[in-house]
């Protein structure tokens, strides 16, 4: 009887420590969303956790405190903001001087591949550890579609900026969420729901109103950006599938950039040769005058600076997704696009009519509705998980000597140290479906908690 009381006291203490550790970030950080503990907690706690987990990946381990995780994620998003907005305006200005957007993108891809290769080689020489290197079969089958769609996405985006304004580019490119949603439904990554179709209709209608009778509308640039949005949806949907395959070992953004860039170059190269090759050949420089040398050096430095910005932006983008979730990137993208549009109107003189402004509001409302829908889904999933855990109605503690049980203990699903001569765990679970038998909690189940 004394052993039963000690075991009960130990289980209660462990339960309290687990709950406090979960609040203050003393658990392991191992998943994109919080996995709720199966012991009893207020429902409001789960709802708050769901909302926070949808925005930030809260820690579930004893790696670092909660404030440190949030600070890191906010810092990554701010870096992504600065690089993405800066690159948009920089490329828009650069392509007005250098009329070869596809060739510029091709140079960016080559420089990014060389940078990723240099970083990987430096890491291997410094740590004496080999970085992941996919075999030819996996590289062909699993990364070709991501690389080709990504290369054409970037190429068409830069090509379209030559024809349209920053504001129209930003709004047109924001429709990528429609294609992401479509591919996610097709690949069973999202469940069909009536609200999703309303959200898509709002975004589509907002885009139509934004481009309706626009004095700065240009059909060629608009079609190029819409094609880029379609390819962006395909790219990020397939990328989500690949990143979730932990067996490939491409969670590190440097490794992902290294393996994907060759496919991007292969996709952009034919378009650059066909549409820009003859013009570049006809404008060949002799480099005899100082003016030609200065123009060439200026162009190379401008392209190199853009490539560095694109490289670090891509790294920041992958890190935001890796440390938080795709939902966080969607939330960040909404405010980034608002900032980009405001800056375009203020500094570039872009014009918006009243109809265009209403379309802008409708499109952003649809995007925000999509984010809210994802948050509600996260809350519903956590509440369902909590409901499932309540089916475990008793936790019995058995001693190895007399096999006695103590019922109605807190639901602490933890494997206790073995004791006595039997070598069985002291803490066992009895479910409502198995009232007569105790279900033993093994190490793998404990780790999944």
From TrEMBL:
What PANTHER family does this protein's entry cite? SOLUTE CARRIER FAMILY 35
Location(s), subcellular: Membrane
Give positions of region: Disordered: 399-426
Q: Where is the Sugar phosphate transporter domain?
A: 74-367
Domain of life from the UniProt record: Eukaryota
Q: Main subcellular localization, coarse class?
A: membrane
What's the protein here called?
Solute carrier family 35 member C2
Key words, A-Z: Membrane, Transmembrane, Transmembrane helix
Q: Where are the transmembrane segments?
A: 66-90, 102-123, 143-160, 166-187, 194-213, 219-236, 256-275, 295-313, 320-347, 353-373
A GO cellular component annotation in the UniProt record? membrane
Question: What kind of membrane protein is this, topologically?
Answer: Multi-pass membrane protein
